[in-house]
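User: structure tokens for this one?
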Amino acid sequence: MMRSSNIWMLQYLVTLFLILSPCLAHADPDYDTLSGPARAIDADTLEFGFRRIDLWGADALERFQQCLINGQSTACGADAWQVTTNLLVATPITCEVFGKSRYHRNMAVCRNANGVDIGQSLIMRGMAVARTDEMPEYGPVEDRAKQARTGVWAGQFIDPFNWRQGVRLPEHETEVRTWQRETD
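Assistant:
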């Protein structure tokens, strides 16, 4: 039979584990390069097994983001994800890590087996915006995409950073209604 002090210690350890386990689950180990087959979680997040990489310098449209192109609502986020998925077909994918994201994931410049820079390709196709604070050389690529009205530059869209904050085009805002009981 366990003594009360042993039970208290066991409860303490279990509680401590439960408190600390979310912190441990989000920790991402540091590594310099990753290489191998990858899949697209969204247009700018790749997964190598259980390891995730965010693209450095390219902020792609979010997977469920919508845009207006030629006056029509389009699933531009899904289109961006599809572009990334297509670029990952040429394996292995090689990623060189440059920093950490706000989600504590490694951020990297990734290239497919054909040497195509995936982030730069998304920007060139108008499926991502350049984060020139991270990759200044992506700025001219974005400028060319804007001038050519490529991808989302042919219409209206919300910057992915703002979209993640809840900003939407007026056409895509949704009204949230709460149910209220009718009174007599």
